[in-house]
TrEMBL record:
<dbReference type="Pfam" id="PF03721">
    <property type="entry name" value="UDPG_MGDP_dh_N"/>
</dbReference>
<feature type="binding site">
    <location>
        <begin position="91"/>
        <end position="95"/>
    </location>
    <ligand>
        <name>NAD(+)</name>
    </ligand>
</feature>
<dbReference type="InterPro" id="IPR008927">
    <property type="entry name" value="6-PGluconate_DH-like_C_sf"/>
</dbReference>
<feature type="domain" description="UDP-glucose/GDP-mannose dehydrogenase C-terminal">
    <location>
        <begin position="334"/>
        <end position="449"/>
    </location>
</feature>
<feature type="binding site">
    <location>
        <begin position="278"/>
        <end position="281"/>
    </location>
    <ligand>
        <name>NAD(+)</name>
    </ligand>
</feature>
<feature type="binding site">
    <location>
        <begin position="340"/>
        <end position="341"/>
    </location>
    <ligand>
        <name>substrate</name>
    </ligand>
</feature>
<keyword id="KW-0520">NAD</keyword>
<dbReference type="Pfam" id="PF03720">
    <property type="entry name" value="UDPG_MGDP_dh_C"/>
</dbReference>
<dbReference type="InterPro" id="IPR014027">
    <property type="entry name" value="UDP-Glc/GDP-Man_DH_C"/>
</dbReference>
<dbReference type="InterPro" id="IPR036220">
    <property type="entry name" value="UDP-Glc/GDP-Man_DH_C_sf"/>
</dbReference>
<feature type="binding site">
    <location>
        <begin position="222"/>
        <end position="226"/>
    </location>
    <ligand>
        <name>substrate</name>
    </ligand>
</feature>
<feature type="binding site">
    <location>
        <position position="348"/>
    </location>
    <ligand>
        <name>NAD(+)</name>
    </ligand>
</feature>
<feature type="binding site">
    <location>
        <position position="166"/>
    </location>
    <ligand>
        <name>NAD(+)</name>
    </ligand>
</feature>
<feature type="binding site">
    <location>
        <begin position="10"/>
        <end position="15"/>
    </location>
    <ligand>
        <name>NAD(+)</name>
    </ligand>
</feature>
<feature type="binding site">
    <location>
        <begin position="162"/>
        <end position="166"/>
    </location>
    <ligand>
        <name>substrate</name>
    </ligand>
</feature>
<comment type="similarity">
    <text>Belongs to the UDP-glucose/GDP-mannose dehydrogenase family.</text>
</comment>
<dbReference type="GO" id="GO:0006065">
    <property type="term" value="P:UDP-glucuronate biosynthetic process"/>
</dbReference>
C-alpha cells in the first residue's frame, strides 16, 4: 500500500517534530498536523519560523524547508482525517487528576475523543497509529470504538511509540536507535499496514533498525524503556546522597561503574531529579497497571524510582535552607534554569518548579533566569501547584532575561538546568555582585568546584 496522505492529531512536542522529519524525508507524502489548540497551530504557521511553539535545535530549519510544500499545520481536524490514509494519534496522555486511578493512571480521554472523531469522519479505510504513549492493551479499546460505527470502513491499528528525547528530538528522529512498530502480525491486513509504516521510516532509517512486534509488546516496551532510563537516574541519585556523606564523588563513581560495558556510561548523571512530561507519568502508569493485575511487588519496585526522585528534589532544597543557617526568609535566591533539561523550552515536571516551591514556602524571594522559558510559563507552573495565591507567586518571584541581573545582590544561586551558557558566565563578576557569604548550589554538576571555591563561593554540588 502506498501512503500519500498522512494526518497527525496533536501538534505538540512529539507530533510537531516527528511529522516535520517525516515530511522532510518523504517529500512526496503530504503531511498535515492538526490540533484543537488554535494558538499552537497559529504559531506553527507563523511566517517567522523562529516563533514555532516547540524549541528544538535544528527544527525551525526543517519546518522552513517543508512547510507549505508537503507539511501543513491546521485546526481543520475533520478534513485532515477524511483525506488521510494514515493517521497518527499524538495527543497528550497525562496522569489522571480525578476519579479512579487519580495521580497514577494515564488519562485517556483525549485518545478516546480522537478515536470517536476518526470513526465518525472516515469514509475510506485507514491505518490508525498510536504515537502517544499508552497503557498496554489500549489498542483493543481503540479498535472497539473505531469498529463501532458499522459503516464498513476498515481500520488497522498500529502501535508506534516515540523514543525521541526533548532537546535532541531532531537528531533522535533522523538517527533513531530503533523504530518500533506493533501490529496484528497474524493477519494479512495487519502485516500490510505494518509494511506501509515500515516503508515510510525506511526512507531514511536502515531496515535492521525497524522492529516489528505484536501490539502489546510495542505498547509495553515504551513504558518499560522509560522506566529503565528513569531507574538509572534514580539509582545514581541515590548514590549521590551516599557520596555526600562519605567523601566519594558521584561523577567518579558513575564513570567507574559506567565503564563496565554491561552497564554503559549513559544516563548516569546525578542531578537535582529528573523532570519532563514522560518519566514520572509513564512509571506511575506502569505501577498502576501492575497494581491492577495485583502484582504488588512489581508495582512497589517501580514506584521506588519516583519516591527516590521526589526525595532528591526535596533534599536539594532542604540542603539549601540548612546550609544558609536554617533560614531563607526574605533572602534573594537566583534560580538559573527552569526547563527540565537544556535545549528545550519545556518545563513539565521540571525539578526547578519543586525546588522553587519549597523555597517559597520558606519565604524566600526568588529571581529566575532561563534562556528559553517565558515568564508566563514560570508563573503558570507555580500557580498550577496551588501552594499559594497567584498574586503571591508574582510578588515573590521575579523573572529576568539576564543571568547577571538574577544574581545581582543575591544570597544564593541554584543552577537547576544544565544550559551550556551557565558555564561561560563571568563567575568572578557574579561573585563580586553577590552578598557574602556567596552560596552556589549546583544541581546539575555543571560547574567546576575548584575554580568556584577559588573565587570564594561557598560551593555545593550534588554528590560532591
Ligand atoms: P503535547 O501536550 O505537547 O501535545 C499534545 C497536543 O495534542 C496538544 O497540543 C493538544 O492540544 C492536542 N490535542 C489533544 N486532544 C486533541 C484532539 N482531540 N484533537 C486534536 N488535538 C488534540 O504532548 P507531547 O509531549 O507531544 O506528547 C504526546 C504523546 O507522546 C504523549 O502520550 C507522550 O507521553 C508521548 N511522548 C512524549 C515525548 C516527549 O518527549 N514529550 C516523547 C515520547 C512520547
Ligand atoms: C525521555 C526519554 O529519554 C525518551 O526516550 C522518551 O521518548 C521521552 O522521555 P525526555 O524526558 O525528553 O526523554 O528527556 P531525557 O533526556 O530522558 O531526560 C529526562 C530527565 O532526566 C531530565 O530532567 C534530565 O535532566 C534527567 N536526567 C537524564 C538526569 O538527571 N540524568 C541523566 O543522566 C539523564
Amino acid at each position: 500500500m502506498k501512503i500519500k496522505n498522512i494526518c497527525c492529531i496533536g501538534a505538540g512536542y512529539v507530533g510537531g517534530p516527528t511529522m516535520a522529519v517525516i515530511a522532510q524525508k518523504c517529500p512526496k507524502v503530504k503531511v498535515t498536523v492538526v490540533d484543537i489548540n488554535e494558538q499552537r497551530i497559529q504559531l506553527w504557521n507563523d511566517p517567522d519560523v523562529n516563533n514555532i511553539p516547540v524549541y528544538e535545535p535544528g527544527l525551525s530549519e526543517i519546518v522552513e524547508e517543508a512547510r507549505g510544500r508537503n507539511l501543513f499545520f491546521s485546526t481543520d481536524v475533520e478534513k485532515a482525517i477524511d483525506e488521510a490514509d494514515m493517521i497518527f494519534i499524538s495527543v497528550n496522555t497525562p496522569t489522571k487528576t480525578y476519579g479512579i486511578g487519580k495521580g497514577m493512571a494515564a488519562d485517556l480521554k483525549w485518545i478516546e475523543l480522537c478515536a470517536r472523531q476518526i470513526a465518525e469522519v472516515s469514509k475510506s479505510d485507514k491505518i490508525v497509529i498510536e504515537k502517544s504513549t499508552l497503557p498496554v492493551r489500549t489498542a483493543a479499546a481503540l479498535k472497539d470504538i473505531l469498529d463501532s460505527t458499522g459503516n464498513g470502513v476498515k481500520f488497522q491499528i498500529l502501535s508506534n511509540p516515540e523514543f525521541l528525547a526533548e532537546g535532541t528530538a531532531v537528531e533522535d528522529l533522523r538517527n533513531p536507535d530503533r523504530v518500533l512498530i506493533g501490529g496484528d502480525i497474524d493477519s494479512e491486513e495487519g502485516r500490510e499496514a505494518m509494511d506501509a509504516l515500515v516503508n515510510i521510516y525506511a526512507s531514511w532509517v536502515p531496515k535492521e533498525k525497524i522492529l516489528t512486534t505484536n501490539v502489546w509488546s510495542s505498547e509495553l516496551s515504551k513504558l518499560t524503556a522509560n522506566a529503565f532510563l528513569a531507574q538509572r537516574v534514580s539509582s545514581i541519585n541515590a548514590i549521590s546522597e551516599l557520596c555526600e556523606k562519605t567523601g566519594a564523588d558521584v561523577n567518579e563513581v558513575a564513570k567507574a561503574v559506567g565503564m563496565d560495558s554491561r552497564v554503559g556510561p549513559k544516563f548516569l548523571k546525578a542531578s537535582v531529579g529528573f523532570g519532563g512530561s514522560c518519566f514520572q507519568k509513564d512509571i506511575l502508569n506502569l505501577v498502576y497497571i501492575a497494581r491492577s493485575f495485583n502484582l504488588q511487588e512489581v508495582a512497589d519496585y517501580w514506584e521506588q524510582v519516583i519516591i527516590m526522585n521526589d526525595h532528591q528534589k526535596r533534599r536539594f532544597a532542604a540542603n539549601m535552607v540548612r546550609t544558609m543557617y536554617n533560614t531563607v526568609a526574605d533572602k534573594k535566591i537566583a534560580i538559573l534554569g527552569w526547563a527540565f533539561k537544556k535545549d528545550t523550552n519545556d518545563t513539565r515536571e521540571s525539578a526547578a518548579i519543586y525546588v522553587a516551591d519549597y523555597l517559597l514556602n520558606e519565604q524566600a524571594e526568588i529571581l529566575v533566569y532561563d534562556p528559553k522559558v517565558t515568564a508566563e510559563q514560570i508563573y503558570s507552573d507555580l500557580d498550577y501547584l496551588g501552594s499559594r495565591s497567584n498574586d503571591a507567586n508574582r510578588q515573590a518571584v521575579t523573572v529576568v532575561n539576564d543571568p547577571m541581573q538574577a544574581c545581582k545582590g543575591a544570597h544564593a544561586i541554584a543552577v537547576l538546568t544544565e544550559w551550556d551558557e551557565f558555564r561561560q558566565l563571568d563567575w568572578q563578576e557574579v561573585y563580586d555582585n553577590m552578598l557574602k557569604p556567596a552560596f552556589l548550589f549546583d544541581g546539575r554538576r555543571l560547574l567546576r568546584p575548584d575554580t568556584k571555591r577559588e573565587i570564594g563561593f561557598e560551593f555545593y554540588a550534588i554528590g560532591n
